[in-house]
Amino acid sequence: MVKTGLDLFKKNWPKDLRGSNAGLLVHPASVNKKMEHAVPLFLKSGKIKLKAIFGPQHGFRGETQDNMVEWKGFRDKGTGIPVYSLYGHTRKPEAEMLKNINVLAIDLQDIGSRYYTFIWTMELCMQACLENQKSVVILDRPNPIGGSLTEGPILNMSYASFVGQRPLPVRHGMTAGEIANYLKNEFYPSLDLHVIKMQGWRRKMLFDETDLPWVMPSPNMPTPDTAIVYPGMCLLEGTNLSEGRGTTRPFEIFGAPFIEPDRLVKKLKEFKLAGVIFRTMYFQPTFQKHEGKLCGGAQIHVMDRNKFKPFKTGVAILKTVHDIYPEQFRWKQPPYEYETKKMPIDILAGTDRLRNGIEKGESLKNMEAWWTKELRAFEKTRRQYLIY
Predict the structure, then answer these.
(1) Are the C-beta atoms of 172 and 181 separated by less than 8 Å?
(2) Global pTM?
(3) Residue 192, Cα to own-chain centre: how many angstroms?
(4) Residue ranges per structural domain of the chain
(5) Percent helix, strand, coil in the chain (nearest 5)?
(6) Could you give the C-alpha distances from 103 to 22, 48, 57, 118, 299, in angstroms and in order?
(7) pLDDT over threshold 70, residue 23
(8) Concatenated DSSP letters for 297-339?
(9) Second-level CATH architecture of 5-219
(10) Bridge-based pairing state of the strands 295-302 and 49-55
(11) Residue 317 — very low, low, confident or very high, per pLDDT cuts 50/70/90?
(12) Do 5-219 and 224-375 fold alike per CATH?
């Protein structure tokens, strides 16, 4: 039985912060095992006094459907507490937002991919709290795609952005609490940081093995299966290919109007990718890329989650479409996630080496070799900050 930081916060709240005025960074997935949300739990806890609420991308209430849709703060009708947006004009809490609190508690369900912005909202909150002499408490949650496997390039700081602010691999295999430990020790050593650890979570666990309820952390992350493919399929956001937004299986379904499914899948089979089958299909997105247009493509069916390599699979898809449809395939141009100059695919990959390799016809085997070499070097750093 896995218990999250929220399940345990009343018992394990730091003693020196009891009775403090607190802020709370949360979203719809900030629930305990009984599906009770963090806000009412904090209000009735008796441990702290809740004075401010913060929300990340997609909103405190999870209402913004698409990516890169900003939202504005408001006053919560039920409690009268101000709710501050950290996705829009402001992504780092301003001093005024923190003036009435002593500690900021963070309870966000991450999904294990460097591109997913919640861990970077967490870092910006850590920065702001250090600058304003506030404490930070992380209520830890599982990495839904496990904590033992890593994959993909390490972010080159020349390509830092809101989809990757610090050196981490694409699939980092860490919990939010472990990433917070890494950020504090490497970049913010003076920050007063506390992590309320989980109980019962083991590194090899995938989310459906935790016995915890799944609540969508964002509207296009409907199931744990989505999270499993996301470390590779989010790369499609940096292209003119549909990553399946506007369908019932985002990131598992992909394609474009110019793709002939049988040709695509035949070419993908040549890579002999482990643990995955591609099923030919047609689909018509209801919003976002190619809205209302018939797209050819495929659906990813993960048959063995332990052998499946999502990032390698995503790169194989990009390479395949680039090679067989050179006239139609395009890299998306900026802006993307507040970056106005660098190519979206480069900030997603954390390097321009991936794009250059695809354009030059580099083999998938050679590309995997260089990012695996980077991973091995980073493992020494990562190992220091693992909690579980």
Answers:
(1) no
(2) 0.96
(3) 25
(4) 5-219, 224-375
(5) 30, 20, 50
(6) 5, 9, 21, 19, 44
(7) yes
(8) EEEEEES-TTT--HHHHHHHHHHHHHHH-TTT--BPPSPBTTB
(9) 3-Layer(aba) Sandwich (3.40)
(10) unpaired
(11) very high
(12) no
3.55.50.30, 3.40.50.300, 1.10.600.10, 3.90.1150.140: CATH of 224-375: 3.90.1150.140
Q: What letter does residue 180 receive in the DSSP assignment?
A: H
Number of H-type helices and E-type strands within the chain: 11, 12
Nearest to 113 by CA among 221, 38, 35: 221
CB contact at 8 A, 382 and 175 = no
The DSSP call for residue 154 is: E
The pLDDT assigned to 276 comes to 98
pLDDT at 63: 77
CA torsion 270→113→212→73, rounded to 10°? -140
- The helix or strand, by DSSP H or E, that contains position 6, with its residue range, turns out to be helix 5-12
Tokens 């482990």: give the residue.
Answer: 274
Q: What is the mean pLDDT of the chain?
A: 96
pLDDT digits (tens, 9 = 90+) for 204-241: 999 999 999 999 999 999 999 999 999 999 999 999 99
DSSP string, 79-121: T--EEEESSSS-SS--HHHHTT-SEEEE-----SBTTSTHHHH
